[in-house]
Specification:
Number of helices: 7
Order of helices and strands: HHHHHHH
Number of domains: 1
Largest sheet: none
Oligomer: single chain
Structural class: mainly alpha
Radius of gyration: 21 Å
Number of strands: 0
Strand content: under 5%
Distance between the termini: 51 Å
Length: about 170
């Protein structure tokens, strides 16, 4: 029974992680086009987090900066296999992004109105926030496991840990 639970867990985490990666890359890349800059304008103009950027960078410049952050965050999350701690930081950054996006529900006038185009678009970020937090926890667990593996001696051959070997070579 444990095998199927592990399979469900690893499959779910993989879908969550790489689903986040794909969507952040997609939505982030859209920010470099005028159609997306115009689409986010009603959200950005009322946001205390972003409205100050409009007079400084203009609408397209603000959208580009958001796009750079989204694409970079997606790429960081994608590093889980090789750099789990970096991936965890990416997932935590995505969590902050989704919290900011959810704040648009409060700052955008009429966001909860029945005919608002924004409520459903923004409410989905509750699920993305959950996914980002779960993938952060998974990546941090992997980082801690990798750290522990570096400090433990080889159980089969009794060889010193990688960290111990580094200390020995650094001292000579």
């Amino acid at each position: 029974m444990q095998r199927s639970e592990d399979l469900y867990y690893s499959t779910g985490i993989g879908i969550s992680r790489y689903g986040l990666v794909g969507l952040l890359l997609l939505w982030g890349s859209f920010k470099f086009f005028s159609f997306e800059a115009l689409a986010i304008q009603p959200l950005v103009v009322h946001s205390p987090f972003f409205s100050w950027m409009l007079p400084v960078f203009g609408l397209q410049g603000t959208s580009n900066i958001i796009g750079i952050v989204e694409v970079s965050t997606g790429l960081l999350i994608a590093t889980r296999r090789w750099l789990p701690r970096v991936s965890a930081y990416g997932s935590l950054a995505a969590s902050v992004m989704f919290i900011i996006t959810l704040s648009f529900l409060v700052t955008t006038p009429g966001a909860f109105a029945a005919n608002s185009p924004f409520s459903g678009f923004l409410l989905k970020d509750i699920m993305f926030l959950g996914g980002a937090l779960v993938t952060a926890a998974d990546a941090l667990n992997a980082a801690h496991a990798a750290d522990a593996a570096l400090t433990m001696p080889d159980p089969v051959y009794g060889r010193p840990s990688m960290r111990e070997l580094k200390k020995r070579t650094a001292g000579s």
